[in-house]
Amino acid sequence: MIAAQDLHTEFQFPQEAESQLSSDTDLEDPDGKNAKTGKGVAAKKGKKALGDKAKGGGAGRVTGPGWVNGHHQENGMENMTLFEVVKMGKSATQSVVDDWIEAYKHDRDTTLLDLINFFIQCSGCKGAVSGEMFRHMQNSEIIRKMTEEFDEDSGDYPLTLSGPQWKKFRINFCDFIAVLVRQCQYSIIYDEYMMDTIISLLTGLSDSQVRAFRHTSTLAAMKLMTALVNVALNLSINMDNTQRQYEAERNKVIAKRANDRLELLLQKRKELQENQDEIENMMNAIFKGVFVHRYRDAIAEIRAICIEEIGVWMKLYSDAFLNDSYLKYVGWTMHDKQGEVRLKCLTALQGLFYNRELSTRLELFTSRFKDRIVSMTLDKEYDVAVQAIKLLTLVLQSSDEVLTAEDCESVYHLVYSAHRPIAIAAGEFLFKKLFSHRGPEEEGLPRRGRQSLNGSLIKTTVFFFLESELHEHGAYLVDSLWECASELLKDWETMISLLLDEPMPGEEALNDRQETALVEIMLCAIRQACECHPPVGRGTGKRVLTAKEKKTQLDDRTRVTEMFAVALPLLLAKYCVDIDKVTNLLQIPKFFDLDIYTTGRLEKHLDALLRQIWEVVDKHTDTEVLEACSTTYHYLCNEEFTIFNRVDIARSQLLDELVDKFNRLLEDFLQEGEEPDEDDAYQVLSTLKKITTFHNAHDLTKWDLFTSNYRLLNTGLQNGDMPEQIVVHAMQCTHYIILWHLAKVSDGTSVKGDMVTLRKQMRAFCLMCQRYINTINNAVKEQAFTILCDLLLIFSHQIMSSGREQLESLVYSPDSSLQAELLNFILDHVFIDQDDDNSTDGQQDDEASKIEALHKRRNLLAAYCKLIIYNVVEINTGADIFKQYMRYYNDYGDIIKETMSKTRQIDKIQCAKTLILSLQKLFNDMLSELGFNFDRSSSAFCGIKELARRFSLTFGLDQLKTREAIAMLHKDGIEFAFKEPSPQGEGSPPLNLAFLDILSEFSSKLIRQDKRTVHMYLERFMTFQMALQREDCWLPLISYRNSLQAGADDDTMSVISGISSRGSTVRSKKSKPATASKRKLPEGDSSDAVWMNREQNVQTPVMMHSPHLTSTVLRDPKKMRPEDSFTATFTMPAEQHPHQPVPPQQHIFLTCYFFVMRHSRRGSGLMEDDEEPIVEDVMMSSEDRLEDINEGMDFDTMDIDLPASKNRRERTELKPDYFDPSSIMDDSVGVFHFL
């Protein structure tokens, strides 16, 4: 008997081993001696009459060979529960089942109880069912008792646990149930005891509110049902065989008829029928007791189990289950909310439609649920959509009449889906629908050529491509059809024949639009064959090809080269004037294997190709065509191949002719005193455009084009009447000239003096572009701006990186005037409303033109932001960019956010100063617009505050990383708030005081120690009267002070700018040498980093009273004197020479300040010595010294309480040198000489 205390309650077991099923040497009982003939399933939920049915009545055990005391024995050494044996998987499932059956024959009550506890343990329950419980408690009571044994701390159970061990357990669990039924199918399952008990238990568990019970029992019941379906199927086959044997024996003549055999056959058929009826009763009990309730369970995984298994039943035993009574459950569940369940429905139906015999019995179901299946092709779950398309493909194969044209069209367009599995499934559907049906007249057609079957199919593909009206997605269509129709798409011979050969009599020729589509499809098929990866936007990238795929790729590339080396010149000659066709055709050579030109003796075809390219360049001025020609020359001019000299000569002859023509036309065009006509301008423009396009991919420096282009640009600037396109292309050409010159200098292939020439040309061209930025024409200004930004970036200090220090003389940094011009250009041409953009010449109503204009503006902004990121221009110039973040978030939000992120990586403090500067600019703009009496609830002010909140979020969660930057941001904000006095006179708040309300958005980014320091700095600007004000106009100050005090109270330290009396100082100890706390101040102008001293005059702050906080480190009251309970306030000069001694008042304040700073910077020293002073008493050498200082003070006094020692642990967690006070101290304050 398995007792509860014997069970393992934790699911941590050794690694499982592979379970191997032995052959079916089962416990067959061919004579049926042990088979019971009683009908029905005792799906009992009442009490178990264990004593009535059990052999031995539960007395002493008689166990089988593999079962000891209710536990399985492994090698005679280890006793394990059935759950442990199945989970570990070290024993073959069939051997475990055989041992259990043998034990069941000797003591079925105890062995069955082991099986019951097996299901309980598989559910993750800690408890176990005892024999006493089983005999005297009902199922519901047992389940309720087991529910109480669950681990409430964890919702995991074996079927939901992750890891390979538990995945294997699920497989072993299902195998165990299947093998158990299979081994018991001839006797034990008919004893009206085992199956009745198991079905009753699983039915009760499946109705439990505990998910683990419900999930595990449903899986067990469904697998049990599947095993019973197999048994019923075998019984049905045996009955048919017995019936045939009986009929054959009965049809014999009487003399040869064996009556004994007839009686045996009749008896066997009767027994089989009885067994069949009993199995059907069991299946009905499981179906009605479990499936009908659980197929709509709240848990999607349980519903998926039910649908998956009913699909198996209908496929295995179609005579019993493949009818509308069962199919309706699958149809209903296709509307499930969870994709996992919908996916199981589709896979179940695929198994049925794949069998043509079964598919004919699904007509009613198909007509009822076809629309739902079609709609699932657009399912939000990609896996479900793929399987829905595959199911429709099977439906299409079973019958052409089921799917209407509208149904098919809803699948056709999915070949253009960005999700490749969906597109491939749709491509297979399209191929089956359009290309798989052959009429009798097509059987005798040739395999290749215009009159072949492929010719007809290629035309069909072209027609489909045009009708889809997605002409720019030819690569997607080819990729979708590649797996099922690659042989068709690789029939380039037929495609060439369709383009070059004359149509046969009676044949309809392709029109111009169809020929253009065919050329595009042909190019896409060539690219797919040679590159072997999906088009851009479909797929995650290039994958590693197998050896077979590499061989196929090489073979296809060889075929392409051999075929199109001959055909391409002919195609170019025929379609020379067609822009679209020529552009696509000129992309084919980049997929050639250029060695074949030599090995295949195809040089004459290469010459023909070069002549045709020359003709194309001569006849066309379209940029796309010229770029295709330039790219083709660049690919063919490869020094690794023997054809290089031949191609290089042709290219040089072409460029010589273009340059000579350009120089000749330019002389005529720039003649003084003559007005150039439109024809001359067109000739100059077309020639310049060709030279510029070729200069992008080819080095034309030997033709010295800089002089002529610079002359052209200078003339246009002086006269102001130069056509805009000529100026634009002249700028672009000059840009390429400088870049090619730089490439030669960088490679070390230049001659002496080239660097000086390059420096002069680059600077002259930059000045030229700067002058063109101020012209009238938008296209010219945008081109000049873009090129100027690129040149400033290329010739910045970055040019010396990677060991290129010899290029230092080429560094060009923009002066302040150029930086201002660039920034003004961005503000005037980028941050504008859509309706104000006149660059589209009255076509703003066109949505496409709006998108194009926005794209141009984004490029301009990105070009300038790169200058900020790479520190070409000052980072603070980004303030005017950052302040537009909220207003133009939809258009440029991603660019501005990325710029802020990059600048923060360069310099955190300078980035923070830039952010606060942008907020200050917005605040000043608001004051100019609304006046100083503005409403703080106005949309303008709320917008600035929201922008500050967004800025604050960009600093992230790690406060230590941004500590100094945030502190500097608050410093600048405080200074700005108190910078301007009130226009209403004394007693009114400063003009910019409301800015503190904006600044409070950053207070949460300060750590507690820094909040004290910032608060002390804030109080330097405050008078005593300010601290007492409570009017609405002073609310920003109040709220900002509250934000600085929030979270700092736990440290029991008052953040007040005063000095503690000796009575509130820490335990006295000898002070450390002053040099121990000295830190070197940063060199250079540190006026932006000063906290304690400012260059401009400020009012002398007067400290206000605040509640006194009791310190835990106060001196013994007996040793305190009455005069020890005061603190002096002080004045601080506006200017202080760095070498002058600090006045006593300032000395006191600075020592107090450094108490705070040192307290925030203390290391782990305090962890060991509790008596070590937190701050050194460096400001007084005697009590008289303090009294002398006090005599000169006329202000109210205040105490500063020192931090409690309980915070030592918190202080040690801070990085000791992360917040360096030297970074916020002015050089003019010589405090470090005193500490």
Automatic annotation (TrEMBL):
One of its GO terms (biological process) is cell division. It is found in: Nucleus; Chromosome; Chromosome, Centromere. Keywords: Cell cycle, Cell division, Chromosome, Chromosome partition, Coiled coil, Nucleus. Pfam families: HEAT_SCC3-SA, SCD, STAG. Belongs to the SCC3 family. Component of cohesin complex, a complex required for the cohesion of sister chromatids after DNA replication. The cohesin complex apparently forms a large proteinaceous ring within which sister chromatids can be trapped. At anaphase, the complex is cleaved and dissociates from chromatin, allowing sister chromatids to segregate. Part of the cohesin complex which is composed of a heterodimer between a SMC1 protein (SMC1A or SMC1B) and SMC3, which are attached via their hinge domain, and RAD21 which link them at their heads, and one STAG protein. This is Cohesin subunit SA.
